[in-house]
Amino acid sequence: MIHSPPIRTRFAPSPTGTLHLGNIRTALFAWAFARHHKGQFILRIEDTDLERSSDASADGILRDMKWLGLDIDEGPFFQMQRMDRYREVVAQMLADGRAYHCYMSVEELDALREKQKANNEKPRYDGRWRPENIAKLGLKIPAGVDPVVRFKNPDGGVVAWDDAVKGRIEIANTELDDLVIARPAPVGQVGVPTYNFCVVVDDIDMQISHVIRGDGHVMNTPRQINIFRAMGVEPPVFGHTPTVLGNDGEKLSKRHGATGLNEYAANGFLPEAVINGLARLGWSHGNDEIFSPQQLVEWFNLESLTPSPARFDADKFEWLNGEHIKRMPMDQFVARFERYLREVKLDTGERPGFAAQFDTEDGPSISAVAELLRDRAPTLRKLAEMARYCFENPANQQSSFIDAYLSEHLNDSNKPAIVWIKNQLADVEWTKPSIAAVLKDAQSRFNVKTPHVMMPLRVMLTGSAQAPAVDALLMTLGRDASLNRITV
Ligand code: GLU
Description:
With 488 residues, this protein is mainly alpha-helical. The protein contains 20 helices and 12 strands.
């Protein structure tokens, strides 16, 4: 598809809670599309639902976008600050007959709906207060009733668009009644403008070329297209992205491990891995599974979005995160890990249960720890938890594992070898080859198998049976801490 510039997309969240993954994925697609085309990405906060909107939620949206790196070119615009503009447009439309006052009461509307249902018709407003019908029907403007403003929807024909994701969609205008675009207000004033109307005014004023949004809005699109046309503007391209489901095909929820983005950050996910995971929910580039945000931008197109619902898999997100961690240049990884350790240590309230209370000043350098552990866990959090033994003697932690393990696995057959190793380590040159030689010598000298030497050492050094190679561990921990931990 050839798009003539400028490409302008927007993300238009309602600040009514934390952004869920489906929302943020839509933002990612709109952002990637704008960036791919060197266009603009606009943020519009749709805060007209006063009961459900909050500043805290809007702040959270900004924070999450910043964390992911979805930079915005314009905005955030807040719809509540644009009310005068919407009212101005309603007034213009009233003035030139594209909209009209409707005095139908709720009771009358209900009665009409009941009648339509009884006749097996689709319930819809019948256009009775259209100026051309008032005289015909002999309607009298009721006293003391504040009218709403309705948009005069085209009577016949179809509204059609080529959805960039779903393909061609067509709706007959007879399916659409005259939309209320402003809530009740005395004649001469304009009531509160309604959602579908504000969206169109915004998309026109913000010169949006591509509306990329969740497919919950497909049903709004024909109404919006009619309003665009009534305002003399050709509608933008629409692309409705399918829902994100859990891996069991049910509605996505926390149960599937899908949390808010702030929890991803706290749990030690890298934003670039989250971007990668989100992009793969409904978009693909050949068989590429692991890619950077820059590659996403380079490759992104709307044609490769799948119209069927995507399934979220928490394990895959974690795996992807591990892959990004492994592929990152070591110095960058060290910087991120260090920052994470520092922030995690300071911030215990928000991350209950996290045990990283150790002092990273006292022990090996973070880069040595990073070299040792980087490939061993998929998130910064899991790595941080693992790193604890680098800074604290595991014997000081409340765990009976070490004692239980040693009483079972340390005995006359291997103990002399460990004692000998400890003695040798006191004097050996502290380099990996010399340390490795000591470990190897002990095995032949005492005729013990490798695991019978390595496993007890590993457990004493780290408090866990799953740990890196013993020579690497010893190197990282240093002579004093190592000798201190080998208690034979
Ligand atoms: N505020 C709407 C939502 O959060 C988005 C509207 C739009 O993108 O047109 O679902």
